[in-house]
């Protein structure tokens, strides 16, 4: 009986730890086409909303790139330091209701993010409805 109670307790502790993980932290992005690591994005919370900022560009020849195809305030600004995820709100196990900017093409998309595993982030950018879009998986950087 003690073993059974111990197993049940362990299960709930493990289950709770996985689902209490936060999306905040530093994440490595991967290029969809080449599979190459592209950048480090720091996801943070501010005033109850989630944002993501480019804190490192991993490809040396792109470190000084500017967003020539962006519109508005981001036009011709350095991609390094740019906030690309804006205003996501927590709804259940995912965050949505905000946008993501793709500095490669300068376009903003609706998006949602959710933890797929403690160190794996699922991010989906889309136009209109989430069926029309693409999904990326980012990996958490360890401290």
Automatic annotation (TrEMBL):
Top-level taxon of the source organism: Bacteria
Domain DUF2147, first and last residues per copy: 25-140
Source species: Flavobacterium cheongpyeongense
InterPro entries in the cross-refs: DUF2147
Name of the featured protein: DUF2147 domain-containing protein
